[in-house]
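Closing statement on the flavin-adenine dinucleotide sub-project.
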Amino acid sequence: MTSLITSRARHVAVIGLGAAGLVAVRELRREGHTVIGFEREKHVGGLWVYTDRVELDSLSLDPDRTIVHSSIYQSLRTNLPRESMGYSDFPFVTRSGEGDPRRYPDHREVLMYLQDFAKEFKIEEMIRFDTEVLCVESTPENNRKWRVQFKSLNGVSGEEIFDAVVVCNGHFTEPRLAHIPGIDSWPGKQIHSHNYRIPDLFKDQVVIVIGSQASGNDISKDIATIAKEVHISSKAVASDSYGGYDNLRIHPTIYRAREDGSVVFRNGKVVFADAIVHCSGYKYHFPFLKTNGYVTVEDNRVGPLYKHVFPPALAPGISFIGLPFMGLQFFMFEIQSKWVASVLSGRVKLPTEDKMMEEAIAFYTKLEDLGIPKRYTHFLTDPRGNPMLGTFEPEDAVVISQSDYFNWIAKQCGCTSIERWRERLYNVAIKKIFFSGDSYRDQWDDDQLIEEVYGEFAKLKSNQDCSS
Ligand code: FAD
């Protein structure tokens, strides 16, 4: 592996070593920076490190609770084909003779892929495990430097000064709850999907699952294998329908919950339920970041940010990798990381603070003009028919498609943008979610496309062999 020696090598902290932090560390080092990664857990992988543990507070409302990072459930399989998910030069292919060979593998397989990546690029040597970052703030004596305060699991605290901090702490740990009138006196059990692992708790019960996006969809089917009835509350439907299982129905959103244990849906249907599972998403949360108000989170908009990455007033010292949701996440982490690394070395220039601010404000104004709530600011996916989008027509909800976004960044930092095959694979996969129902993970018809993809992987391998 070659490192680019630049005239402006920076000392950079990366917070969090999930899929975003891992590739950020690699790209920063490739650009010649010195990097230290801080990881609260014992392992790399972030969200993909499955644990049976859940938080004691099943709705995760207590700000002082002990946090369990991962939100994945035992039965989770990827919602995209593995070949589309990998980083550009490290394909996510089947491991010979071990693991889960399926095109949509289980969560263990994704973790193994990330561990392999960390090993291949010797990333662990730059990580401080069991070390939580408690505070990031600019140093009083020099507001272009950043003080990172941390505490390790064995109680040792410390601080260190960095030229830049790259925030990769993930955004699927802090639950977001739907507002339900009357819920405080509703007597049933409530949990957020962050604390859902297995369906056993719901045996023979009547369960309401709020939300019909990826997790709501999976979890309701998981619970339906054991529960008496499952009722999904979805923004995407106006009246009741069946959900492909005898004991599963889909309803519109909830109108109110009542003291007698009943829940009234917006179309007047009433269900007496034992439990509610909130699959209503997550909040961006940066408890360690002290920016004097230069970065705020308002209705799940992290802002103001230039292209979802740089806060104009603090750039390039502070940057965020991985805020946009939906779409090709690992690829996005990689391309955003390349951009951050090249800006920090001075190889690529950012516009002035004023220009970045103007751009951010113009973007927010455009969203507002389209009637798109702030919480969709970081929604980034292909506009053509994303079935996971509930409340808006897809054309209205997306101001820029993910490929436009990737192409724009690639142009800034002179790197290769999204491969044509990856775009096509993603588009096929999204259509399958829409049209193939529950079997979308297990029926793959487009063998020719897969053949092409493996042809591209073979070319990549032979180029890598030649240059090593
Ligand atoms: P994370 O993986 O959450 O990593 C963040 C890391 O930061 C963690 O290791 C955490 O311990 C650490 N950290 C946090 N705070 C601190 C601190 N203060 N100090 C030190 N360390 C800290 N994407 C796909 O591409 N395909 C899928 O099939 C898919 N399925 C998903 C299913 C679910 C249920 C969810 C919630 C998401 C799914 N995603 C999927 C999206 C997923 O977010 C990304 O794939 C990706 O793994 C997120 O990586 P990340 O690095 O941004 O965050």
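The radius of gyration is 22 Å. With this model delivered, the sub-project is considered complete and its resources will be redirected to Aim 3.
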